[in-house]
């Protein structure tokens, strides 16, 4: 093998698509390299014909459908994540215990209070309305205290000076959007205890986050 | 003044950090941060929309790359039905993991990498389950350029390429058939550029030898 044949081989191994003029001269004179180059070229020219092209009008709608489903799933996961944040923390356990206590008390009060001379359905409606009224009043008071915390934390959150504050801010935005979403659902269905319970959990998460922001600030000072 | 270090973003994924920084800067009225150099302007805007999970942005992605994705998948999977499944699966993976895209390569290279890996995974799964791999039914697929669908050279080449070692076949298909550069193929297959060049050389050598044998056999039959 001459030096030129080796050079030709080296160029092939580097994946060149055109030969430099010095090597072209060699290829013209060397039948082995000429044959090699011819086959090489033949393969390169034939290869694009292996590209496939066909119409598939159903494919994008299928993909879109799966992305929609994924988005919905992700939304639920995000929601669950916020709802179950520190699920087993002492805060959550305390809040659950308080909620159970309130609900038990409310149930007991409804059972033991003197009965009214009205129809069963009317009585149930009144009881439900009263219970709801209680819950809404407590919720209102709870919201006021969270608002106070929000006002205290507002300067820190508005202009976060650290990564942790920036992440708290992100979290609060997420919580507020979840609260907004839930409140809309609750307004549509005031009697749904499950929705109210979820709303309460989210409020607790907000309270907890605000407390952490203020605690961090106190530590920093 | 707002800085990347103040936000604690200096160690995270560069693209996502840049986008977070941009969002914070916009909100606080500060000038926008420079976009990472590796990302083109158009990719940058498109990425923002993709990160928000915007479906029109994903549709645009499909319009831009869907055709080429289908072709690659079809050559790797051997039939159009599995190819379409692979493309769908890849889009789902892109949707799920777009936030982990770090901008070290172009968005398209990243997407094709996901596609190639998805195809290889599906093939492995088929082999594990011992499913009969659907035979290539290329006759009904129009080929865009060059030789006609039933040209003897194209048919022979297709058959030989399909029987190549996986590593050689992937590089050959991506370089010669789909027209990617070695640097892009390196990113897609997670190999070095040099390894991509060597694999292409080996693939062509193998093809040349087998083509010669096949032509010789055809001449003898005549």
Structure description:
The complex is a heterodimer of chains A (about 220) and B (about 220). With about 220 residues, chain A is mostly helical. Chain A has helices at about 5-15, 20-30, 30-45, 60-85, 90-110, 120-160, 165-190, 195-220. The model of chain A is unreliable at about 80-90 (pLDDT under 50). Chain B has nine helices and no strands. With about 220 residues, chain B is mainly α. In chain B, helix 5 crosses helix 8.
Tell me, rounded to a whole number, the average pLDDT of chain A. 76
Structural class of chain B: mainly alpha
The percent of residues in helical segments of chain A reads over 70%
Count of discrete alpha- or pi-helical segments spanning 4 or more residues of chain B: 9
Largest interface: A-B, 39 and 59 residues
Number of helices of chain A: 8
Low-pLDDT stretches of chain B are 1-12, 28-33, 135-139
Number of strands of chain B: 0
**Which fold does the CATH topology of the largest domain in chain B refer to?**
Rna Polymerase Sigma Factor, Chain: A
The succession of helices and strands of chain B, N to C, reads HHHHHHHHH
Bin the helical content of chain B: 55-70%
Radius of gyration of chain B: 21 Å
User: In terms of structural class, how would the helical and strand content of chain A be classed?
Assistant: mainly alpha
Count of individual domains of chain A = 2
- Whole-number mean pLDDT of chain B: 79
**Largest sheet of chain A, described in full?**
none
Provide the β-strand percentage band of chain A: under 5%
SSE series of chain A: HHHHHHHH
Strand content of chain B: under 5%
């Amino acid at each position: 093998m001459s030096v030129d044949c080796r050079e030709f081989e080296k160029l092939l191994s580097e994946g060149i698509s055109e030969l430099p003029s010095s090597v072209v001269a060699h290829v013209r004179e060397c039948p082995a390299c000429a044959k090699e180059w011819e086959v090489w070229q033949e393969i390169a020219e034939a290869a694009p014909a292996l590209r496939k092209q066909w119409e598939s009008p159903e494919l994008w709608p299928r993909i879109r459908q799966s992305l929609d489903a994924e988005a919905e799933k992700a939304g639920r996961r995000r929601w669950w994540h916020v709802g179950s944040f520190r699920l087993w923390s002492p805060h959550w356990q305390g809040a659950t215990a308080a909620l159970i206590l309130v609900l038990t008390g409310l149930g007991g009060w409804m059972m033991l209070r003197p009965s009214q001379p009205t129809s069963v359905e009317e009585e149930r409606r009144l009881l439900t309305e009263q219970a709801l009224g209680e819950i809404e009043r407590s919720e209102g008071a709870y919201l006021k205290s969270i608002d106070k915390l929000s006002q205290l934390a507002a300067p820190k959150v508005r202009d976060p000076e650290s990564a942790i504050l920036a992440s708290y801010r992100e979290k609060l935005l997420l919580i507020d959007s979840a609260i907004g979403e839930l409140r809309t659902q609750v307004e549509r269905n005031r009697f749904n205890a499950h929705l109210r319970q979820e709303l309460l959990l989210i409020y607790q998460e907000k309270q907890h986050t605000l407390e952490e922001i203020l605690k961090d600030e106190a530590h920093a000072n | 003044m707002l800085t990347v270090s103040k936000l604690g973003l200096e160690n995270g994924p560069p693209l996502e950090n840049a986008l977070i920084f941009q969002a914070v800067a916009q909100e606080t009225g500060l000038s926008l941060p420079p976009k990472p150099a590796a990302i083109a302007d158009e990719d940058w805007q498109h990425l923002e929309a993709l990160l928000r999970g915007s479906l029109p942005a994903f549709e645009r992605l499909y319009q831009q790359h869907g055709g080429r994705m289908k072709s690659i998948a079809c050559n790797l999977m051997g039939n159009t039905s599995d190819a379409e499944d692979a493309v769908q699966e890849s889009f789902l993976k892109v949707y799920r993991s777009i936030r982990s895209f770090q901008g070290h390569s172009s968005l398209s290279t990243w997407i094709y990498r996901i596609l190639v890996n998805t195809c290889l995974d599906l093939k492995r799964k088929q082999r594990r389950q011992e499913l009969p791999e659907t035979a290539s039914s290329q006759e009904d697929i129009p080929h865009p350029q060059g030789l006609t669908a039933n040209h003897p050279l194209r048919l022979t080449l297709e058959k030989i390429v399909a029987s190549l070692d996986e590593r050689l076949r992937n590089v050959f298909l991506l370089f010669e058939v789909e027209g990617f550069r070695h640097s892009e193929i390196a990113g897609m297959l997670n190999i070095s550029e040099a390894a991509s060049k060597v694999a292409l050389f080996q693939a062509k050598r193998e093809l040349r030898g087998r083509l010669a044998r096949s032509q010789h056999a055809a001449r003898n039959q005549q």
